[in-house]
Every structure is written in C-alpha cells, then in structure tokens.
Amino acid sequence: MLDWVTYLLFKMSNSNRIKIQAIGFAIVGILGVAVVDRVSMSFMTIENHGFFGIPFCIGVTFFIVSATILYLLLRRTAQVAEEALNKLSCHQRQEKENLQLFNFALDKSADAIYWFTFDTQFFYVNDAACKMLGYTKQELLSMKLSDIDRDYKKNTPDFLMHIRQKQYVCFESQQTRHDGSTFPASISASYFCDASKEFICAFGRDITEEKEKRKLIINQNKALKNSLQDKEVLIKEIHHRVKNNLEVISSLLQMQNRREPNEEVKEALSKSQSRIYAIALVHEMLYKNSNSSNINMKSHLEKLSSAMIDLYAQNKNISVNLNTDSIFLTMDDAVLVALIIHELFLNAIKHAFVGLESGIIDIFIKNNHNGTVVFGVKDNGIGMDSTKADTNNSLGCQLIHTITEYQLNGTIETDSNHGYCTSITFKPKKSENQ
Fold this sequence. Notes:
Pfam families: HATPase_c, HisKA_2, PAS_9
CATH topology of the largest domain: Heat Shock Protein 90
Distance between the termini: 103 Å
Catalytic activity: ATP + protein L-histidine = ADP + protein N-phospho-L-histidine
Protein name: histidine kinase
Number of strands: 12
InterPro entries: HATPase_C_sf, HATPase_dom, His_kinase_dom, PAS, PAS-like_dom_sf, Sig_transdc_His_kin_sub2_dim/P
Order of helices and strands: HHHEEHHHHEEEHHEHEEHEEHHEE
Keywords: ATP-binding, Kinase, Membrane, Nucleotide-binding, Phosphoprotein, Transferase, Transmembrane, Transmembrane helix
Strand order of the largest sheet: 2-1-5-4-3
C-alpha cells in the first residue's frame, strides 16, 4: 500500500505533490492540536473552556499559516528546480547536438585523424584513418602507433618528448596498411594535456600521388633542361658555322683583293672584308659565351678595334681608348652597333689625322638613365664641317644613317669641336631571357 502511494506521488507533478504535502501537514497539525487540546481539557472545567477553546483556535491558526507559507516556499522551490532542470536538459541536448556535429566533422574529414596517449595506445580514430590504413575502428582502437608506423621513433630523438616540447610538429613518415603495404604520409602532430593525462593528436595524409607528381615534375624539368642544353648546343653550332662561312667569304675577298690591280676596287674589297669580320665576330662571341642570347659589348669592341688597327693603321701612330659600360645587347642589336662603329672607326682612321703625326680615337658605349644606350666614336683629329658630313653620300655614311634610323630607331648627333664626334642614341631590344 505504501509503495503504491509513493508511486502515485512520484508520478504527480511537483505542484501537486507540494499541495498534498502542505494539506497533509495541515491535517496532521490540526489533529495534533486537537489531541493536545483534548488532553489539556481534562485538567480544566467545561464551564470555563469549551472544545473549541482559545488554545485550539491558536493552534489551528498557527498550523494553517505555517502550511500556507510552507506551500508557497515549496512551490517556489519547485519552480526554480523545474527551470533548472529545463535548462540542464536544454544544455545537455545542445551538447549532444554539438558532439554529434563534432563527431560528424571528424569522421568526414579528408585527413586521417588518430589520437593516442603517451604509451602510443589509440583511443580515437576517424573514418578517414580506417580507410587509409585498411582497419576497422575496433581494430585500430586495440592497436598502438608502432603497429602502423614502426619507425616512428626514428623521425626524431625521443619522439613524443619532442612533440611535447614543440607543441606542434610536422614530418613525413612511412606507414603500414592492414595488407602490409607501405605508403608515404604527411603527419602533423599536436600535444595537449587534460588534467593528469597527456595526449597526441595526429593528422595524417597519404602523399603517394603528390610524391609521384613531384617526381614527374622533376623528371619533366630534367628533360626540359636537357632539351634546352641541346638547343643551346645546336644554336652555338649554328653560330659557329655562320662564323666559319663568313670567314670563308672574307678569305675569298682577301684573295680577290690580292689579284685586283685597281686601287679603288681593292679599297672597297678591304672595307667589305672588315665589315664581314665585324659581323663574324658577333657570331664567334655567341658560340663561345655561356649566354647564347646576349653579347658583351666591351669584349666585342676590344676585339673589333684591335683587328681594325691591324688592318688599317699598322703604319700610323694612332692609339685607341675604350670607354664602355657593362652592356649586353641582343645579337641583332650587337651586329648593327658593330657595323656602325666599324664605319665610324674606319672614317676616323682614314680622314681624321691627315697631315698629323699621331692621333687618339675614343670608342664609347654608355647606359643612359632613361633606359637608352648611347655609343659612338670620337677623335682629336682635324675635324670636319658638319654640313659636309650631312651631304656625304659615301656608302659608309649611307650605311650609318640607314641602320640608325630604320633598324635601331635611333638618333644621330655630331660635334666638330676639338676633332670630330658622332654619337648615336637608341633603345635596345630585350632578349627572351630578360
């Protein structure tokens, strides 16, 4: 009977239980007052005190007020407890939802995630780890790190201590699948501590494809490098053959020059021979230099001026000064600049020092701040009237103006003070490597 009553009270709401408890307390209190009052009445006369005397009324009033106050207090307490239970239930439900989302995110992660204690025993693995290693979750949770990564201690000395010290470590490792096959993995391991327990959270990724792609790229780069080297060798061979062919032509002109009785023809042949040499010299430098796309103009002009002195000024007391910056030009620009300097140098040797015992010729090429290059030839000879220079119709002058205006897109300036100076300004082309 008592169990049945207890069950009914448990099934009731908090408010109903409070009401029943308060009413029961009031009834018991009234009965208690009645009993006390009845006992006390035996010591008093009925004339002075009736059954519903003053003590009884006071007792009844007291217990009614007490029951009411107790009911209100218990009701408020029940409301607070019910609100707390509702909040706790809501919080637990939210925690459960968050935990489900967290577990879902971990399981669906593209990276394998496995957590283990400092004795390397796994206590959490996600679906990606199972798929990557070929084990079930139950199998992995009964295993240790050494079962899938037998060489983990070789990565660094005191591996786990190293992770604890650094807090976060990345490295590559060879891991073993369920079928015994191995694969390279990129691992990032983090240390964290929960109360007295220490854990390692590791994220792993199979990088077999990445390493294969990297290897393929390396092989492709190696093949491309070999192809470029072969191309450079071929280009140098072409320049070498062009240079040889030009030398053959120069030799033919020299042979013709020796047999030619006409002095004017001999002079024309000599000029053509030196012009061909100026062009051949560019090709010679291209196949000798490691950089097959640019010409070092300082070295080029040193060789060109030395050859022209030997050819045209052997019996003259003429010295040559080179004033050059470190300038590298493309093959096309270098050939054109060499031809112009050849003509200017030849004119200076032939015409600047008539009647003089000695002379100085300056060959210069400089970089300007605006990205242009200025080059030319200056002598300290007898000078020349600028109007005559403009109206000169010789082949050399026509060659200079044609190359400057139409091929270099440059400008020509002359100065006849203290000798004669011709300077040409142009913007050089950029090579493919620049």
